[in-house]
Amino acid sequence: MAGLALDGVNPDVGLLYDINGLARSAPPWFDRVMGFVGEFGIMLALVLVALWCWWRVRRSGTPEDSISAVAALVWAPLAAGIALLINVPIRGLVERPRPFLDHQGLEVLVAGKTDFSFVSDHSTLAMAIGVGVFVARRGFGFAAIGLALAEGFCRVYMGVHYPTDVIGGFALGTAVVLLLAPLAQALLTPLVSAVARSAGAGRLVRSRRAAAPERGHEMLDIPEPDVRPGRNGLAA
User: Fold this and answer.
1) Model's pTM, two decimal places?
2) Residues facing 235 on adjacent strands
3) 69, 75, 114, 132 - which has most CB atoms within 10 Å?
4) Would you say residue 212 has pLDDT above 90?
5) At residue 110, does pLDDT exceed 80?
6) Would you say residue 35 lies in a domain?
7) What is the mean pLDDT of residues 61-74?
């Protein structure tokens, strides 16, 4: 696998030069911004999207919807961590050097990358969180997956990964989230449900503002007493 990217006519290498070539023609300040965004910025944005999703699912839908969505959101970072652990032996098995070690003329925006290239940790982590958020709430999930795709582009733009490193990371992150989701939901849903019933921590799953209208709705369902006059003029 390591040798697949050594041939200059390889499409993987050609796409690498095309995308990284944008960095060579961009202003230095833009490359600095892209380096920060690709290393830290998009990952921070993904965390904020996940928190925003959590904030919204607590306040909308039924209590069962909130419990299921929060369980999915808890699973997202756990799945990302599992995917990164799986990537450790994959990297050791493939042993693919970073692209700038085998190819000249690349614009490398982040220094100090000495580990192997396949699979991209950032792409794996980003897509795992993105797909996990998608499982919890599709609207937020589309935004999160879009950020994950942008992360993959940035890793190639920065000259630290081949496109296939990114694609492999996307596949690994997605596979871990979706394949283990049924088991994760079966284990996490009862736990989140127990937290929801807790007096102190219940608001982590369901906000009081969301629960209040439901109590009011239940009050409206209480039957009114029958006050029709009877034969003797008193209420029946």
Assistant:
1) 0.81
2) 229
3) 132
4) no
5) yes
6) yes
7) 87
